[in-house]
Design a protein that fits this description.
Blueprint lengths: L3 E7 L2 E7 L5 H8 L18 E4 L2 E4 L12 E3 L12 H8 L9 H14 L5 H7 L11 H17 L2
Parallel strand pairs: 1-5
Antiparallel strand pairs: 1-2, 3-4, 3-5
Helix pairs in contact: 2-5
């Protein structure tokens, strides 16, 4: 099988990887780059566990061929905060009890981050629409929506 060499800009770092034509971005991120925060859930674009930000927009990385991401800017959950300095969204998810099993959390946070970049003061309906492609089986979404509202307020105050 032929491999193609591509360059991925993931969280500000350039990776040069060889991929097979059918390899998804999800599998390259997890298996080649070792970034395990991007989760493998349904692998059919239904659950949102594999959500990444690609050139400013959210995508289910299980539906994107790695070659399609060549030379594009990709943000994964590992690229938005650290344990010592969490992103306001990460902090608010913890504080609001929006993290239970944690499987959906990276996709939810990245969907919220993309929303807040476009719209720093979203309505509840806009938040619901932004996270619509992300399934959570634990929280019932109420705490997730509240966490996004808390983070939005903090980010507006700090102008993040």
């Amino acid at each position: 099988m032929k491999h193609n060499s591509i360059k991925l800009n993931v969280n500000g770092k350039i990776y040069e990887v060889k991929v097979k034509p059918y390899q998804t971005l999800l599998h390259v991120i997890r298996n080649e780059l070792g970034l395990k925060g991007t989760k493998s859930g349904c692998e059919s674009g239904e659950c949102g566990a594999c959500t990444v930000i690609l050139n400013g927009k959210t995508f289910h990385s299980c539906l994107v061929l790695a070659a399609q991401a060549d030379e594009k800017k990709i943000v994964t959950i590992e690229g938005i905060g650290t344990y010592e300095r969490p992103h306001p969204l990460q902090q608010s998810f913890v504080e609001a009890g929006a993290v239970q099993c944690g499987f959906c959390t990276p996709g939810m946070i990245l969907s919220a981050k993309a929303l807040l970049y476009r719209n720093p003061n979203p309505t509840t309906e806009e938040i619901k629409k932004a996270i619509d492609g992300n399934l959570c089986r634990c929280t019932g979404y109420i705490n997730i929506i509240e966490a996004i509202k808390i983070a939005a307020e903090r980010m507006r105050r700090k102008r993040i």
